[in-house]
Amino acid sequence: MAAGQGMLLAVALYLFASVASVDRNNFKTCEQSSFCRRLRSLEPQRSEFEVQPQSLQQFKQYIMLTLAHQRTKHEYILKIACLKDSNTFHLQVDEREPLSVRYRVQDALVQEPQYGPTKVESSSDTLIMVACGDKPSVKAAIQVAPFKVDFFQDGKLVVTANGKGMMRFEHLRRKPEPNAEQQQQEEADQKEQGGGQAAEPAPADNDPGAWEENFKSHHDSKPKGPEGLALDFTFPQAKVLFGVPEHADSFALRHTATKGTDPYRLYNLDVFEYELNNGMALYGSVPVVYGHGETSTTGVFWLNAAETWVDVFSANRDTDMVSSLVNLVSWNSQTDPPAANFISESGIMDVFVLLGPEPIDAFRQYTDLTGKGPLPQLYTIAYHQCRWNYNDERDVEMVSAKFDEHDIPMDTMWLDIEYTDGKRYFTWDHHKFPHPVEMIRNLTGLGRHLTIIIDPHIKRDGGYFFHNECTDKGLYVKNKDGGDYEGWCWPGSASYVDFFNPDARRHYANQYLLENFREQSETVGIWNDMNEPSVFNGPEVTMLKDNLHHGGLEHRDVHNLYGHMQLMATFDGLLRRGEGRLRPFILTRSHFAGSQRYAAVWTGDNMADWGHLQASIKMCLSLSVSGISFCGADVGGFFGNPDGELFSRWYQTGAFQPFFRSHAHIDTKRREPWLFPEDVKLVIRDAIRKRYRLLPFWYTLFYEHERSGLPIMRPLLAHYPTDVNAFGIDHQFLLGHQLLVAPVLDQKQQRSRDVYFPVRADGHGDWWYDWDTHRQHTATGVEAIPVDSYKVPVFQRGGTIIPTKERIRRASTLMRHDPFTLTVALDREGRAKGTLYIDDEQSYEYRRGHYLYLEFEFRDGVLSSRKIDKTASYKTDTWLERVLIVGLGKQPTAATLYTDASGAASGRLELEQDGDVVTVRKPGVSMLDAWSIKLDF
């Protein structure tokens, strides 16, 4: 077969597979991954590592010790340090004298760790006690033999490293020369492995997969031999573990440490129509796990970009934590505490231990390390319309016009790979899109935007300028022999930009500049897809591990970081394209720790079924607590054709997730909202309009995320950490601390939806108000909420104030000067607080102090507004149109507005009362001014 025919066949096979279901035979199990097979432990054991106490070296900001393996006598360096102003320890283990330098992850942390004073409180032949000078309640106890580290918060043991004795660290070594008999046995074992039957675990020197490895038709030469490592962490105060995205599984991690069950896998892969309720690897990897119990929340961030497996030892092995209905969990206090065992193929042990003690503290400690998601442009958190593919300019124009015709707001049109000239990125198919700049200008004239896809694979075509430049400049990933690596992807034969090369990143970023990619504008958003990287003819649909990157890096060391490095380059290009003024918008499929600094993430190639709708919440909750708040799923499912009920319920769910986009596969039926029956279209329109009303609230949440690093979408345990029944709930969620969202996720929930109202630490519940009816809910526990086709059960917490805009326009950009409404929901004490953030919604001027950050407070019958950041200012035309107050319990007789600094009254206001809702109409006050509204009774 000719090479060109082979390429076309590979693409055809990929397309065929992508409309069937995931073929699990294409992806490794732990037994087929030799390092996982060797290093995995399922039972506690005595560790073979010991500390040499006489090696202790004390420095102002860290200590160092020698670790020795008792059998091999190989030595390692242990470094422990306290992070400045944080209940966080940094623990590193590396070989003392490796044969070659082992890789340490770069570019994931927002900056180098900032250490505070670290001191040895006491030292003996059995125990070394380390304290943090600026946090005396934070300590680490290093046990000499067998080696383990206990971490304490306020005198309470909260995390133990190597408590189960599962630490492994394969030192680099030279390959032994096998005799003929060994050679024959190796070949037999290799064949057995390739057929999917794994050999029994064996020491590295005797394991044929340690020195080279086959999977199906692919060969990994492993030039450095075995270099795997593993370390377990126990969470003595926890009842549940969560984190380590990305998996299509429950929020609370399941017990995996059982023979025949695979660990959770972190290895970025292109998996179409992924299965639900398992730990198979997906598109992204964030190696952070949290342990939570009623008295403590802690975390472990395992900074390693190689293939990693995570075994979970659950404290609640017999309880199914899936939560299509609320489980009232009965915890067994005699069960061993939960633990997680991280197993990585290469690199070093580079671990941050986050000591909380509250969930919010642990989440903030993680984003202090990896960065906060920057405030996006407002339009990016509105509604996006996408499919693979909109056919041509006329199609784009027609879809945009139809949204107006049907009075449905929409901010962004998207174009998938078919807009390009033969899958050559940074080009246009001028037959289908002869006037791209004019098309973009027409959209922006309506207040809308365009986003286009650009992937990391580059078509190998001598007539393609970018391929020629990458070839001439040596900017491609290399194969193990030093030549440009070739794989197959959408263009056919393709090579892959080496984003670990600073010159390649800069050259790639330069392509986004208007002087290079002329047929665009500075307002166009970018979609980075297939960046795991996806290689249709590669092992597990990705790149060979023995490929080489800039500086001699093996791909095995950095695989999970590849897409992240593309994001860095894209962000740099878009930032310079907008001359540093406009905030870039990027959507990515592949991601790693820290990717939130550059891009939003979606959950990949899901399916049009109810299970995948439910999974969208579970997956985004796991991503959110792992730093990636700007998350969403393809509304309606990428594959398949949703019926009207599923489609409308998915819109209702997506409208309350941070990233809100409808997207569909090329082989699906067209599914713009007006193509469904009128009753379905109207439900969809209602859901989208709810999103637009709440945009001021969303925008404030995103701004506060940049300031605090806290998730936007939160599990119930974030604010109800002592409510054991809330630990495993992942079918409802919080937005900030203000809204409780419980969308309809099941075809059976046509008349009612069970909602769990959580319990506070004092044993009481908050007051919750139905967002639509303002009906008050004061009880805790499960309540059946009536629903119809329009109903999305959403509740505002008593004690909060939420800003909205009630004038819905075709796009969010046209709402900038519209007035605000405040909904004041009172708590048991008759009080409430809320915030509102205002700026120009697109530029970086807010970082120069050009913004308003306001706090509203209601107490003693007075609603007032004040600036939080008094030195910041932004001239705005917005004003206060209406105030709704719920939970007053009595009817006011009058309302008076005060705006004068002297306290003089500015005038009487019109009041209305409808049931339990009091409305103050048209205060008319500018959001720039300090003001108060006093109710008289």
TrEMBL record:
Pfam families: Gal_mutarotas_2 (PF13802), Glyco_hydro_31_2nd (PF01055), Glyco_hydro_31_3rd (PF21365). Belongs to the glycosyl hydrolase 31 family. The keyword Ribosomal protein does not apply. It is found in: Endoplasmic reticulum. One of its GO terms (molecular function) is carbohydrate binding. Residues 709-802 form the Glycosyl hydrolase family 31 C-terminal domain. Residues 175-229 are annotated as: Disordered. Residues 374-701 form the Glycoside hydrolase family 31 TIM barrel domain. It comes from Anopheles epiroticus. This is Glucosidase II subunit alpha. GO terms for cellular component: endoplasmic reticulum. Keywords: Endoplasmic reticulum, Glycoprotein, Glycosidase, Hydrolase, Signal. SUPFAM superfamilies: (Trans)glycosidases, Galactose mutarotase-like, Glycosyl hydrolase domain. Residues 213-225 have a biased composition (Basic and acidic residues). Residues 1-21 form the signal peptide. The keyword Hydrolase applies. Residues 79-311 form the Glycoside hydrolase family 31 N-terminal domain. Pathway: Glycan metabolism; N-glycan metabolism. GO terms for biological process: carbohydrate metabolic process; N-glycan processing.
